[in-house]
Each structure stands twice: as C-alpha cells, then as structure tokens.
Amino acid sequence: MNFVRDVVEAAPAERRALVALDAGRERRELSFGEVAARSARLAGALAERGVCRGEVVMTVIGSTPEWVLTLLACFRVGAVAVPCTEQLRAGDLRARLEAVAPRLVVASERNRATVLDAGFDGPLVRVPDPALFDAPPAPAIDLDPEEPVLITFTSGTGGEPKPIRHGARYLAGQHVQAEHWLGARAGELVWCTAASGWSKSARNVFVAPWLRGAAALLEDRRFDPAGRLATAEREGVNVLCMAPTEYRAVAKRTELRPLPALRHAVAAGEPLDAGIVATWRSGVGVDIHDGYGQTETGALTGMPLGPAVRPGSMGRALPGFSVWVEDGELYADPASVPTFFLDAPRDRPWRTGDRVRTDEDGYLWFEGRTDDVIISSGYRIGPFEVESALGSHPAVAEAAAVAAPDDVRGAVVRAVVVLRDGERPSDELAHALQEHVRERTAPYKYPRIVDFAEALPKTASGKIRRAALRGD
Question: Which segments constitute the AMP-dependent synthetase/ligase domain (predicted)?
Fold first, then answer.
C-alpha cells in the first residue's frame, strides 16, 4: 500500500485538494494533480539530501501546503514523518530530537532558530523554497502495512511526551472514522483546525478528508474567534472539526450565526459538554458530533451519523471496533482497530486510562482520567463534570478541577478558575461559583476550594495539565 499512490494519485487530477490561507491573507488552491506532482518532486529533493526508506524526517512547520507536501513526500518513499507543533520550545524539541534521531529536519523560516537552539546539527531544509520542487520526481513505493510511516508524540498530560509509531495501515485505516464520524463527502471542503504536529492534525486535516474525496482547508493564522466564523463562512466550509475549547471560545467571545454551507460539525481531543452542543445548535444550526481517540489508537468512538445527537456523549464504538467498559475504564482490542500503533501490546486488551460509563444503548460518556478522578468521602468525582458546570457560568472563561488533600474527607474538589475579561476575583464570586455548581450537579461535587488564576497550565496541544495543578 501507499497512501499517495492509492489516494492522492488515484483522485481526479483536476479536483480541488487544498485551500490554504496564510497569515498575510494570501489564498492558494492546489488540485490533487498538483499535490501529487509537487510531493513527488519534494520527495526527490529529500532523496538528494540523503533521505532513504525507513529514515526519520522531522517537520516544524505551520498549517501550510509545505507541511502537507513534506508528509506526503515521506509517505511516498517510505521515510518516517515526525510532525512537530510550532509551539515547542528548544528544550521540548531537543527531547524529541533525542528520541527519534531524524536524518533531516524541514522547518519554516520562523522556526529555524528553535531547531538550531535545540542542538540539531544535521541537514536543515527551510520552506517555502521553490527550488525544492525542481528535483526529479521520486516514485511512490509499495509499503508493508506494518512499515512505519508516521511518529506522533503524546501530549504529555500526565508525564513526558512519548513517541508513538504508526504504520502505513494507519493512513488507510482512517477510512472508518472518515466515513462514520467525520462524514465528509466528495467535493466538499473540510476544515480541521488542529495545529500541525498533533495526532488529530496528522489524521484529520487532510488524510481523512482525502479518503472521502473532499478538499482540506489550511489556515496558518493565530486563533481568533470572530475570524474563525468569518473564514468558515467565506470559504464555504461544509465540515468543521475543532477542539471543544475552540467551540466554547467562539461561542463565548463572538456572536454565533448560521453558516449556510456548514452541514456537519465534529469535536475531539477533550470532552465536549452538553451546553456547548445546545449553544451551537441554536446559534449556528448544526449539532456537534463528539468523538474520542488517543495518539496510540487513532479515533475509537464517534457520535453516529443519522441518529439524534446525545449531547455530552462521546458516541459509540466505530463500526468493527471492539471497545468496552470494564470496572469503569475504557478498554479496546488492538486486533480490531486498524489504526493502533505499531508497538501496541497484542497479547492483551489496551487500557486507555480513561474512566467512561456506558448507557443501555451503547453510548459512551467520559468521566475523566483514571488518575484525575477525585475521591471524596467515598464518592468518585470526574473533574469534567465540575469543569462543565463552572464553564456554564457567565463570569468563567475556563476552569480546571483537581483533588486537594483533606483531613476528614481524604480529598475535596479544588477549582482553579480563569475569569472572562472584565471580571474580578472576590470571595463573593467564589461563593457564587460554588452555588452555581451545586445547582447544576450533585451537591457532593461542588468545589470546596475556589482559586483564581490568570491562565491554566496546558500542554502544547492545549490540554489542561492537572498534574501541575495538583503539584504532582
């Protein structure tokens, strides 16, 4: 198999593949034929610089065509692509360089200094560079399904980021979620806003849309709530894929309005609270379909297409995937999931480390990480429930819930709250937030401690680092 040959080159050459918007508002479109030709020449340029089958190529590039073309060049010749987010600092990047030992790094000019500061002394290719597309094209080679083509790093929510290897089957295996959750159609425009370098971006920015014959939108700009809606409206986005944090930020910081072209919306990367689903339904006219997966597994669940959305649920196991809840934790059978990582244990079920409950219809409901669950007076409290209740208060921009030691109860819920612009911390507001949570969830879940902060500690992919708040 080879994703470039089987998907990109097999698509109608004239069909639109990429729409790219850069920070200077310049707009570019590339057809599948152009993408195939340019990635072939870029693969040739990498080969001229010593990149061979099985060798590692790291990218530190924004959401640009050059990022996509570099990954395709690697897939074409059997090199192993390691996309890294631009948010990494030199120390973060140094750890990744030491972990994967790349033969070559491809970086945009704005990231060149970070790569050098990280200590990389090998070949450094800067993009954009028109000369890279002057090399003789390299053919797409046959790859074994188990042959490594991609390494993505975990986010480091509970520890140091780890490199996760995926084989060629990982790319083709995205067809399940592409069909049954992302739901793109041929000729449509899909916008997955995940920054380059993360698991969701590697599979949903262009791989999953292209498997369905849809085009992918890239926007190399800082997040702006009003701009996000304006871009979706102006470009006629049909399928929108964002993190729940982005859906919440857009809803709280701008005026939602119907987007005529938008047919479908999905969310993944963190739990999606029911309130934001209702807000987008009333303001935009679409239901957000939640989904769940891990860097190691790819997408495992998704809100099904067709039936009514169940707000707050992460959907059901994708068709053919064996996923179940045992003792409150979500498990999966690696043999049933084509997107499992290469180094997954095959002799036992995969423990996700996520606490999940299932209802009578097989829908799954996220309750928190196994190591994030707060046990107070014998009650097990998922932090997401508390955070969701806090987030529905008009004064709150975002919040995190963690355990705080307590001599009597063992632990109590501590909330760390970031306020919206114009709001000021006070004892009165802390008490109001406690009462707000009491009114929206079981009384034993309310935060007995409320602290205010300017910002929450997060991983580079935007997930809350609760371990840092606990002081682990």
Answer: 8-329
